[in-house]
Fold these 2 entries.
Entry 1:
Amino acid sequence: MATQNDSKVVVIGAGIAGVSAALKLVYNGIPDVTLLEAQDYIGGRVKAAMIDGSPADLGAQFIHGRTGNPVYEIAAKLKRIPFATSVNPVEESLTNPGDIFYTSSGHKIERDEVKELMELLSEVLENEVTDGYGKSVQEALESVYSKFLSENEGKINPAMEEVYEAAYRWFSKYVQVDNATDDLSQLSLDSEYVVLPGDRYTIVDNGMSGLVATLAEQLPPGVVQLNTPVSRIDWTCEETDNPRQSSGSKPIRVTCENGNTIEADHVIVTISIGCLKATHKTLFQPLLPAPVQEAVEHTGFGLIGKIFLQFEEPFWEDHRESTQDNFFESYEFLWLDSHLPTIQSDRSKRKTKSGHPWWYGIHSMETMYMHPRVLEIFLNREQVELSDDLPDEEVMAVCTDVMRAFIKDIPIPDPVAIHRTNWFDNPYTRGTYSYASTQFRNQDKKHFGRPVPSSKDPQVLFAGEAYSKEFQSTFHGALISGDNTADFLLSQYGLKPHRKLIDLVSP
Ligand SMILES: Cc1cc2nc3c(=O)[nH]c(=O)nc-3n(C[C@H](O)[C@H](O)[C@H](O)COP(=O)(O)OP(=O)(O)OC[C@H]3O[C@@H](n4cnc5c(N)ncnc54)[C@H](O)[C@@H]3O)c2cc1C
């Protein structure tokens, strides 16, 4: 191996994993680091649209958990946490205290009426009950739901039966969006995800994109090369103890689409699992070892969509009691089989696999911090795929009509604008985030994200949200993964990291 001073590291992808890896290396003794980014901005799946002069996060939006979360610590040091208190501590149900439930028959439902069922279903995800349930989240949820029904047999009035059915479907939709998969039979219960204590939905002044920007500013000039997609990584298959040291040659050649090549000792690949699945057979020369390829193929990578509906002025009330409340309101929609609304503005008439219109099951509309006249809607994969290419006007009208079908006690004006995400069509994301798939096998765990050809000769290393066992799918998982991968590389050179990411920023 080269020495630390003449070692060359190329990091591919300037999302938060790539930025944190590059920072850690540069500030801890590896001077020659290049960060290659395909797109024209830093942040990857953290990106904002400006709405009313404030950034609205199209990708990562919330810090999930506070205690032990380095992203929270960095944001707090930067004084970007607007709300000191946490009204949605992890001990509480997954749903938000600001939820107002409506049925498709236009009735308001008190949260308490569905709370017990929601809490039972939430426990499945909190891993408090796993024994005796099937491997997939779907099996576990079905099992809990039928137990709930049988334990309450004879006690549920007929009107509530249908509400429970709808609440169950609501919860499934919530889990689909949270995990970016619309097939819960593919979502494994066997996840090592750790829920950090503290507010589950902490928001950040200036958005998550502001945080990435502040971190990236600490990189020395010249490290980042934007608009530079990497098309090929030639690595040396043979594991070696170090014949290259004497020859001075570097084992890896990174080729960019613009024809430039860079010789390197190590490459840290941080592209999304969606991109890796799509490109690994052409990206790596030779191919990655078969078990590593299989582990990638077996990892789940999903898709969700966000819609921001902008109104002339808010028609909802701000129930925040003080500016210290981290509180957002949300309207939750329970779709009753007996009352499926007719939506005139649905001109496309596109149907889901189960034969419902694409907008069936839009389950929530939420108010947004810093955007007092915007409501945010989350779509699952199928809804995104079916509505993706519809004109903005049609999607805007359909969403408004859905809202009007549920919320009858407040007059709902027409929105004035719509903003939509498009993570699937972007060749440099190809979806939103990874999830624990039922296809991921025990043997995959050993190979997923391991250095190639080996830990002793780590030419190609991997980092990104998907490789964080405890925090898979999250922004903090990606940051920690980049940081850990850099630490591993530093340790190969006998270097102990003395500067942490948090040391690099100041308010
Ligand atoms: C809609 C949405 C909502 C989310 N909400 C939250 C949330 O509220 N909280 C949370 O914690 N997380 C959330 N996440 C997840 C979070 O955004 C990601 O986990 C995290 O940002 C991933 O960072 P990364 O560095 O691993 O990958 P990325 O951000 O994808 O970075 C990889 C980079 O590689 C680049 N790249 C790809 N191919 C190439 C190539 N061939 N050559 C060079 N560069 C390439 C890409 O352009 C990209 O910049 C959300 C994500 C999405 C999309």
Entry 2:
Amino acid sequence: MIRLAILVLRALCIGHLSIGSSLAMRAPDMPPLPEVSISGHHTSDYTAKQNHPTSYVSSPSFKGPLKASKTIGYSSSEVSLRTRLAQYVAENDTNLPFLRKPFRSASVTSPPPLVASERPSTQMILNAILQQLVAHNAPIDAKEVMESTEFYLSLRKRIGAPLQIVDACAGHGLTGLLFAAGNPGLQRLHVNLVDAREPASFAVLRDLMTDVCPWIRDRVTYHAQPIQEYATSMRDKGTSRDRNAPTAVIGTHACGSLTDEVLHLATEALEAASVAVLPCCYTGMAKTVPYGVQRAHGVAWAADLRRSFWLAEQGYHVDFACIPSEITPMNRILIAEKRKMDKYTAQNKR
Ligand SMILES: C[S@@+](CC[C@H](N)C(=O)[O-])C[C@H]1O[C@@H](n2cnc3c(N)ncnc32)[C@H](O)[C@@H]1O
């Protein structure tokens, strides 16, 4: 009986091993990774990697203080989120720490200015900014505030603390302003906002935010020019441009191919250490992607996959992240970082 059991076990082991080895023999080689030269700054130069997500979540929960209810569907939330911030806060149960119940607009006053040397936490900074924007009925919708805040919170640790941030197609500029506000201790940080047109709301937001986060004064510049022109001026500056300032480029909802222009600005003109975009308006954006990929994955994914392969060819480590889909269905972030060579690439180079 025991001999029989040993024989069966042996047969199974041999079978298992032979199946395993025949599979191994048939498995195709992994395609070689593109040869990339990793030059200039990479994010590991100035920031320790931390809290990198391990899974892709297509609609994460809100990280910031202002949240949209999970119970309302996208279309109805879209309507209600496109309400001026102060009115949205008055009409919805937002549970913000500075609101007294029952809500009275008059009860919201400006918070005292924060002090950079006291190292205020990100939460303190965001709460103070929100309180200030509500107290002054700032000219911005709840949707824009949530979008900028969630984008900032998803990325702040990943792009770390570069010395220059370029917010391309910045519009009202709140996203770039949040990156300036969120780095009180980084005195050399400068945020450049670039947009074909500087909207009047920018100066109002900047001044209100400067009142509570005084360190952003003189750290933010608005360049009212097309990003193509800005890219040319950066290229023309050539070596006289401050290449010692590691640069991160961000671009939220730059319509259609403008997102690709932002990626070119980042990788070619600015040689950025990292770039993060939240694309929108996908029509026509996947034309060069094989038809089957478009059919299987949809045009939006096909376009972002094309962008991710292009960025990888430029030598960037590419990943995806998301902001909560209650804010917008265009909620996918494409994030690319120049990194020191990763283990896999290093092994393949040996
Ligand atoms: C949908 S808005 C996004 C604004 C902002 N980033 C946001 O998320 O709210 C697109 C912005 O791109 C700007 N824009 C359009 N063409 C541009 C160009 N060629 N160069 C720079 N900005 C441009 C528009 O003025 C507009 O502010």
